[in-house]
Amino acid sequence: MANLGPAYYAPYPVATYDGLLTPPEGKAMLLTDIVDEEVAMREVARVMLTSDNATIFPGPQVLYAWSEEAKKKATLIKEMSEVLNAKMIPMYDYRPKYPKIDPEVEINPNHPNLTIWHNNIKAAIFIGVHCHYANVALKIVRSETDCYTIGMCALSGHEDAMATIRDQHAEDLARFIEIAKEVKQELGK
Amino acid sequence: MSVDIYKINPEFRDIMPKDILDLEDNATWGAEKRGISDLTDKKELLEEHSLCAGCPEAAALRYILTAIPKPEDTIIVNSTGCTSLMFPHIALHTVHSLFGNQNAVASGIKRALTWRFPDKDKDVVVLAGDGATVDIGLDYTLQSFFRQEKITTICFDNEVYANTGGQESGSTPKGQVFKMAPKGKVFDKVPMWELAVTSGCQYSVKLTASAPKAVARVVREAIFIARELGPTYIHLYTPCILEIGLSASEGLWEMKEQDKDRFVSFKYVSPEAEEFLKQCKKEGRL
Ligand SMILES: Cc1ncc(C[n+]2csc(CCOP(=O)(O)OP(=O)(O)O)c2C)c(N)n1
Ligand code: SF4
Ligand SMILES: [Mg+2]
After folding, report:
1. Which among A66, A90, A105 is the nearest to B12, CB-wise?
2. What is the CA radius of gyration of chain B?
């Protein structure tokens, strides 16, 4: 199944096999390239605005009001979904769901591909998912689907995402939204 | 922080499933008084599980979860075994330790929490099977008692290594035959509740899970004492109906039988703990 992944050349779900590491501070990564953050933000906005069923997957760190930063991010992510015309499906906890998950209303890190397959999602932003579960989910998605994944990370990024932007705090999200508005206008979306 | 961890940002309420909204709206987070009566009309912290139908371990865990005084400030440490199949489904912080290490892990967590949150009550509760508590982890169980770690240890005694298919444990009664113990146990059941007393526990109780309210009361007492004074121990009979050949509806009957036999009630409360419980009652905490 692994060669179904979007990085067709990579028969492995693990990006480090291809020598990919997370981008250095101040930079972002698009597929295999280290780029300036703004370049990545533009590309991410373009992909989200032009892919079928683009979706944002907010994780527990932003879904719950556990800090002032989380509250600010919630407002911004809501706005982001409107600007990107994206749906939102929550990853509200990491408990394994048996006997089944409902892929229309949730995504679970233990089988994220089910949600992506079911909704035919071609681009997705992971935001607010704790590192270790983002790592698990992104690897599964990478190997099992053709979804373009975007890791918007508050820490050092995720090499297993197709695009990763690191150190994203509330003010960075606000900047991304402004860039996305511009891209949207350019694309006439 | 604590309860806020479970408050959903209003921007996301429209995309959250009902189940999760219910956890915020109808669960007992932050409630002064929680208890067995909540089982009838409050959102439970454990709804699904993958144990055998009718397994008393699952019922017992529900009783325990309703009794935990502050779920939002509680960490459960568990060990491999049938019980551990339920922990990933609990809407509560749980740490799955390496089999047998549960009391060592819990001691470390408790010490770290005390250092990190000196002004807050953070309860650490170990929940593990008899194999983990009485056999393979016995060293750590006892060391945590000797060292007066302020944690509560609850042993789910089903008198067998159930999860691995039926080997005898130290807790198996003498003579008992299992699928993978065909000759029958040759020595007596280890009286763990007594070892707990001689090893320094402030509170040690043996009971079955036949009476939900009794379980809940003991759990609350044990957690309050552990917070203030030192280690507490609960030895709870939760029979493995599969290994002793009972049907899904017969677990309760078996526990009631054992209320009169191997699990006839045992309760030790240290003099300090006794005083402390009186004070808790006066304050309406129990
Ligand atoms: C370090 C280690 N040793 C052994 C095992 C194998 N093992 C898994 S479950 C189990 C028995 C658990 O028995 P108990 O603690 O009584 O729990 P129960 O399943 O009866 O609830 C054992 C030995 C393991 N998982 N890890
Ligand atoms: S094997 Fe026994 S202890 Fe394990 S879930 Fe089944 S009945 Fe419960
Ligand atoms: Mg057992």
Report:
1. A90
2. 19
For residue B74, pLDDT over 60 is answered with: yes
Indicate the number of domains in chain A. 1
Please, are residues A48 and A150 in contact by the beta-carbon 8 Å criterion? yes
Ligand 2 nearest atom to the CA of residue B158, by list position: 3
Q: Which two tokens stand for residue B161?
A: 């290594």
Encode pLDDT of B137-153 as tens digits. 999 999 999 999 999 99
Say if CB A136 and CB A149 are below 8 A apart.
no
Does residue A80 lie within any of the structural domains? yes
Q: Which of A94, A95, A177 to mutate to test the interface with B (most CBs of B within 10 A)?
A: A95
Task: Show the domain range for A55.
Answer: 15-187
DSSP string, B147-213: TT-S-EEEEEE-SSBTTTT-B--TTSPTT--BTTBTT---SPPP-HHHHHHHTT-SEEEEEETT-HH
Whole-prediction pTM: 0.88
Cis previous bond, A60, omega within 30:
no
Q: Under DSSP, is residue B37 helix (H, G, I), strand (E, B) or coil?
A: coil
Residues of B with Cβ-Cβ distance to A71 under 8 angstroms: 9
Out of A61-75, B81-95, B159-173, B229-243, pick the least confident: B81-95
Give the ipTM: 0.91
- pLDDT the model gives residue A12: 60
> Average pLDDT per run of 10 along chain A, which is 189 residues long?
44 74 94 95 98 98 95 98 98 82 93 95 97 92 91 94 96 98 96
At B104 the three-state DSSP class reads helix
CATH of B35-283 given 3.40.50.150, 3.40.50.970, 3.30.200.20, 3.50.50.60: 3.40.50.970
Q: Put residue B124 in one of left, alpha, beta given phi > 0 → left and psi -120 to 50 → alpha.
A: beta
From the list A132, A140, A162, the residue with the least C-alpha distance to A149 is: A162
**Substitution site in B46, B171, B241, B246 for ligand 2 pocket (most atoms within 8 Å of beta carbon):** B241
| Buried-state track A140-178, b at ≥16 Cβ within 10 A, e below 16 | bbbbbbebbbbbbbbeebbbbbbbbbbebebebbeebbe
What count of CB pairs under 8 Å joins A to B? 57
Helix (H, G, I), strand (E, B) or coil at B236: strand
To test the contact with chain B by mutation, choose from A61, A64, A82, A101 the residue with the greatest count of B C-beta atoms within 10 A, namely A64
**pLDDT value at residue A9:** 43
- Give tens-digit pLDDT for B178-216: 999 999 999 999 999 999 999 999 999 999 999 999 999
Q: Where are the alpha helices (DSSP H) in A10-152?
A: 37-50, 60-63, 68-83, 112-119, 131-144
